[in-house]
Amino acid sequence: MKKPALLWLNISVFSVTFLVAAIGTPLYIAMHGLSTGLVVAFFALFIWSGLSITGGYHRLWSHRTYDAHPIIRVIYALGGALSLQNSVLHWASDHREHHKHVDHIDHDPYSITRGFWFAHIGWMLREYHAHRYNDYSNVRDLQQDPIIAWQHKHYLVLTLLMNIGLPLVIGVMLGQIWGALLFAGFLRLVVSHHTTFFINSLAHIWGKRPYTERNSARDNGLLAFLTFGEGYHNFHHIFAGDYRNGIRWYQFDPTKWLIASMAWFGLARNLKRTNKYQVEKARLEMLWLKSQEKRPSFTERLEQEYENLMVSLRELNSRRRAWANAKRDALQDMAQVKELKAQYKSLKRSFREQKRNFRRQLLTT
Ligand SMILES: [Zn+2]
Ligand SMILES: [Zn+2]
């Protein structure tokens, strides 16, 4: 089959920025050394563009996991232009296709089924998706936002201002124009491009799948470290409506911390979290499935216990809901609320005990 036409603009942008960063920065350091100002400028712009993609393009706009104040949306829209990953509208449209058709060889725009290179960058180098390039039917909700419409309309000017104008201003302030263009411009752009692209490539190949094996997405702490928390991609693909990707307190997810802090200051609202019993259920189902594959005869003996555990989990969930409903319902008297709370707490304790025993049996034999 004939391959689609090459996209020379994209090829030039990726290769020129890469070559300038790879050759220019070591040469610059050899000739002028490296100042603190340039390091700070590199990280400041890297963090701004990175969080605009994760907190803005991804979790706010593609998945609508929370609402953000207009000031924050403008900061994200500018940071998105800085990251040079197309307009919010375009990015979110591709990303929603990715979730809807994940791993499908044609319909997933960056399908890992076509290999690492394709998912990482190859999908942007040819006209693979020309047929839906101007089709924004899956992001109509976003078209209502004037900030998104403004960014889409003026994308080219904004991206030039952010990627050349802003480093120039920083360069004049630092008295190191070439240094700022290299570090805050080229090097920052290349590093931020490829770390983001790792989510489409590496995060679908390398890591664990604790929540689901129905798609290729993986949880990977190292990738999370490089991408402001986006590396918990297995969790994200099953619970994409959650504003968090790393749900445990020790999981590195600065985007989640940013959103939670903004909520605290009144700049973000309606933060959506997955019901924790659904998360628990997915984990237990995966643990059970994997054990069944590895040691079928052994798990057969624990079949009944697994069933009981799932019954307890459902019971726990419904009791928690009853308690929460009662609390919300002003007509309920306090005594009943307390009673339901006590019932829930005691069920929770016994469920934990039951789960510990079950896991111990599965994992230690
Ligand atoms: Zn993905
Ligand atoms: Zn996503």
Summarize the structure.
The chain has 365 residues and is an all-alpha fold. Helix content is 67%, strand content 1%. The protein has a two-stranded antiparallel ribbon with strand order 1-2.
Describe the fold and architecture.
The chain has 365 residues and is mainly alpha-helical. It folds into two domains: 8-269, no CATH class; 276-364. 67% of the residues lie in helices and 1% in strands. The chain has 15 helices and two strands. A two-stranded antiparallel sheet has the order 1-2. Helix 2 crosses helix 3 (70-83), helix 2 (36-62) packs across helix 4 and helix 13 (276-294) runs antiparallel to helix 14 (296-328). The longest helix is centred in the last third of the chain and has 33 residues, at 296-328. The radius of gyration is 24 Å and the shape is globular. The termini are far apart. The mean pLDDT is 94. Residues 58, 62-63, 95, 99, 236, 240 line the site of one zinc ion.
Number of helices: 15
Radius of gyration, in angstroms, nearest whole number: 24 Å
Q: Report on the biggest sheet.
A: 2 strands, antiparallel
Classify the beta-strand content into a percent band. under 5%
Q: How does the helix and strand content classify structurally? A: mainly alpha
Average residue pLDDT: 94
What coarse outline follows from CA principal-axis ratios?
globular
Query: How many domains?
Result: 2
What is the succession of H and E elements? HHEHHHHHHHHHHEHHH
Termini separation (Å)?
A: 52 Å
